[in-house]
Automatic annotation (TrEMBL):
PANTHER family: FANCONI-ASSOCIATED NUCLEASE 1
Catalytic activity of the protein: Hydrolytically removes 5'-nucleotides successively from the 3'-hydroxy termini of 3'-hydroxy-terminated oligonucleotides
Organism: Kushneria indalinina DSM 14324
Pfam family, one: FAN1_HTH
A GO BP entry: interstrand cross-link repair
Protein name per its UniProtKB record: phosphodiesterase I
Amino acid sequence: MNSTPASTAVHDAPLLTVADSLRDPRYYLVNFENVLTWVSERYNDLLDDDERDFITRFQGLPVASKALLVRMVMRKGEHFRLDRLNYDEIGDIDAALAPLIEQGLVDNSPCLTLDRLFDLFTRDELVGLFRDHLPRPRDRKALLKEALAPTFDQALVPEAWAAAAGRAMVADVVCLTVMPVCERLRLMFFGNLRQQFSEFVLADQGIYRFEVVPFTPDSRAFQSRADIERYWQIHDCRERFEAGGDMDEVLAALPECIGDSVWLEARRGRVIHAIARHCERQGELVRAAELYGHSGQAEARIRRIRVLERLGEHQPALALCTAAQHAPASEAERQQAARIQPRLHRALGMAKPLSQADAPVRRCDLALPRSGSVERTVREHLDSPEAPVFYVENTLINALFGLLCWEAIFAPLPGAFFHPFQSGPADLMRPEFYLQREQLFQRCLARLEEGTWRETIQQRYREKQGIQSPFVHWGALDDELLSLALECLPPAHLRAWFERLLTDIRANRAGMPDLIRFYPQAPEGTSRYEMIEVKGPGDRLQDNQKRWIAFCARHDMPVTVCHVRWQSEEGAS
DNA sequence: TCCTCGTTTG
DNA sequence: TTCACACCGTCCT
DNA sequence: GACGGTGTGTCTCAAACGAGGATT
Ligand SMILES: [Mn+2]
Ligand SMILES: [Mn+2]
């Protein structure tokens, strides 16, 4: 029943109508109306006039017009050629369009920039339209646009374009005016702008399957209008910045420091951090340092140290570096600070600090004939029936964690789940995630000592098969791998890995070795597995890999770094 | 006339 | 949209 | 060696389609 989350996910709440996408040709309209109903019911107190007005107008439309509008909303961009809107289930487009224009939901004579025109029309059509203005009509489309740009730098309505070019337009163009309001409704429904309305069909078809987590009828992503606006503002700023918008304008458009929402403040901080990064690259170091200071991001301290170093301000840099080493925000910061400190000491003419060498790692060297990926090559080479090798990287340990702790991860905590298409709890990456579920996780982890972890993981593997999870990538698992892993990995090691993961999910869910080798025939009590990080020529251990290896060394877990060099063709070696 | 890439579809 | 790798250049010791 | 930048491949939901540019 996970394939139809809409029908089962909501506990004590009005059910979403399930669009039978196999038979209803207007399945997308059913889904969209479900969103409107959902949002109206849950956000009645937070909707603004724009949103209310849209919902009212939409509901008053004939069904063909509603369908056409939703088709446009779900397609890319806001501008459409009428001759590209062909839908059997809608029929006569002009008839469906008329009420949309009448209600102001669609503009039938929109201003178009040259860029827009080039998006809408094909190369051949544009050559026809601008026949009299193109010296080299055989050029690439991009060059044609460049040639026209100086002359046609105004946004014009279609009729004016025809007049300016001296030819008739080959198709009518309309523009959706309701895209922003639809985006806000999407944001309110999903709590993010990453998920599209298409999640509905994919879930209906069982392509996406989501865990069914009960939540109360008043559950929603946002609790205040201000949060919706600020989320929107931050998102808008990030988009503008990524599109190369002016930095000062973007910074000015960001909301003020958000005191009442750690979550939004962190999102705001990430945009500031990205802008600071950009300044740093541009050589605007002072500006960068200042922005890093405002970002509130944990990684910002190291960046500020680097910037101060580049500015020649070694004394303040060292002060920050010492602070970072004294109370590192993360293992990653400790690691980086330890690398920077000797440089600063040298620059300041201070005594060379005692450096602490990396923990020694078991190492092996291989010369192999060149072929596809190094990891696959080494896997093939080492694999044997008695000691099978798998190329798993992060997927195995994360999956074991995700399966063992399934109930804790999908626990119905208030605020964690609020729509049927979530692959995990909304607060997964927030710092309080673990603390708010400590008991639940400890209960799951206790199975490692109670001796029931194998059954639990196998059972979850079977019963949750294919359901989206932030930790389980189903394609990377199979029965053989899972059985061997459960047989050979000691529960104490699993606990250590899982607890490490829980201390910082974002940082610790990556960096695990490429390969894992099992020794199922080794006697009980000896090491029956080995993790192998493969390094091709010219690749060295990354920071997160070093951290993982150091962690394993502290816990007596077998890790080997396997260095590969390619055998030359002639066998000259 | 192919090949590649982005978009649309359910 | 993520993570890992390959490979480049730069500074510095 | 440290550090940063860039590009690539693996993911992609999968299939169909169309536009553009390279290929012949
Ligand atoms: Mn790897
Ligand atoms: Mn590797």
